[in-house]
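Q: Got a minute? One more chain.
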Amino acid sequence: MKTTSETKELRSRKIKLNKNENVEESEKTTTQSGQRLHPFESCHKIRDSLLSSASGYTNYRGILNLCVVLLVMSSSRLVLENLLKYGFLVRFDVPILFIKDPTAWPSLLALVLSNLFIILALYLEKLLQKSRIGENSGKFFCFMNVFTALLVPAIYLWYREANPVSSFFALAWYTCLSMKLVSYFQVNRHYRLKIKNELSFQENCKKAEKISTNKIENNFLLEYPQNLNFKNLYYFMAAPTLCYELNFPRSQRIRKSFLIRRSSEIIFLSSLSLILLQQWVVPILKNSKIPFRESNILKIIERLLKLAVPNHVIWLIGFYCFFHSYLNVLAEVLRFGDREFYRDWWNAEDVNGFWQNWNIPVHKFCLRHIYKPLLSQGITKAQASLIVFFVSAFFHEYLVSIPLRMFRIWAFLGMIVQIPFAIVVKKFLHGNYGNMAVWISLIIGQPIAIMMYIHDYYIDYFQVTN
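A: Always. Here it is, folded:
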């Protein structure tokens, strides 16, 4: 009896489940108005293909993953091809050899001597603040200090035949130093003239006393001339900025975990760049000597395109390592609050957009201390932009020609050529096409200049034979 009752219950449950499924199917095949749909109702309507721009479809994550997979596979093939052709060329003792190299030490001495120009700048500001020399004389002495800071180390490193790599870093520091000294002078001059124009001598003295009491109560707020001291000046010299301010924005504390991550990135990326340089770039440059010597155009183009990829990879690594990792480490240690060292230059649709976004410290300096003062003198925007571009081109050449000890102006010409290129891109190419033109100029332009310098460097200092 029990079995028959159990079987009846199971049958009733199955019937109920079947009824529920039929109800669900009937609900699916009915419209909102309650009308039942025919199973062969029309399944077509006006629609665009997904890859059409009119479709509004934007989720290309799978295609992006495919590009990454293809990039990894092609890069792996290049790595294997390089190892099979040249063997393992990486030497891990390069940093030790660099330190032991006697030609690297003059650059260190040049770095130490940069303190002389910093001290002179502070001494000059104190003389101007006490009105012991006039403003015109102050401009002259500031110009001579900056000019000497650029000229003396260049002459010294040239005639000492210093190592090109160490010379580059030394001159890069002196380039930053010269811009910092200009900013330091101009900002202090602004506050100095403001005080002289607004206050009498007695009121100025009273304000100085008031400022000194405020400084005791709130020691992080400075006003002119309390900023004229070594602590304030050397903080500015170490800070990751080229534009001076009396009071920089400061972060609350030093984040140790953030500092460790950024420091680890510096070590890893620097090592990776050194490995890629030895294993990938150096063989290409060595094999480029003969094609340049023979003026074989097809082989030169082949070498150029072969160099473009590793050069750009190293350039991207260098950008991240310096502008993101190193400058953030420096800012974190100094609790420097403004961390905008770069913007989204990779989305730039013209050359001007790239130069305005990829190096924000230099861009801010050029805008604040060159471009705007030129506009205030009645110079047009186009002329001011051209002057800024020529100044930038000069420093690019300065940082290449002096370390290599030869004047070829390839870097200068490379910068100047970008002026008509920028006009053409801005006029005829827009959106994605303009962005692709910017990327092409970055990928192809740098290897051209590098190969020209390498070619001339080997001709000047080595015998290149067939």
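A: Residues 3 and 9 are 10 Å apart (CA to CA).
Q: Perfect, thanks.
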